[in-house]
Amino acid sequence: MSTAACTSDGDGPTAKAKATATADTTCEDGAYSWFNVDERDVLTGVAEKEEIGGKGGRLTHKMTPLHTPRTAVTFEKGSRAGDAKAALRSLAVVIGEANADDDGVSTEFAHVHRSAPDLDNGSTTIDGAGTIVQYAWVKQVTADFRYTCGDGKPVTGRATSWVIDGSGFLECSTPIENVKEGAPALAAARLSCDPDAPAAKT
Fold this sequence. Notes:
Helix content: under 10%
Number of helices: 2
Strand content: 25-35%
Low-confidence stretches: 1-12, 16-25
Mean pLDDT: 82
Largest sheet: 7 strands, antiparallel
Number of strands: 9
Structural class: mainly beta
């Protein structure tokens, strides 16, 4: 992923870095300023529609992966090595996933080697007949940052992780209530239901 340099000089969310110095780091306990914080629900997998008759039954179609969420921090090319975990901890504080006073942030959001959600993590049983589509999604968070510490040159970069992973199912002949353009359920309906299905329309 390419790095987007921060150009804004305005006041943005700032969180103290709680990292210790490493061999490649010349300054510790600096401050991260965050810009362009983007939180959005992203469809990660969807199954083909399947007909469930009678009084219901178990869904058997496996979900096809569409997007693999990842946890990563990209630092400005040519800058000194940064602390990816500290950057993610700082972003977790900004979005309310962690407390600024917690030195050992336990949230999965800050785990650099976090595994992507398993799309095949169990079975789902439906009560009632219908044309059913199963899907999965995450709330992906991406943001640009500037790290300032001491008299050194600020380091810029981009961080990404996710805060929620979930799954659901929809019935193609039933409109999805209060759905917004870009919602995972709507995207799943448009991929797996017939084009004129009520669930595929806003």
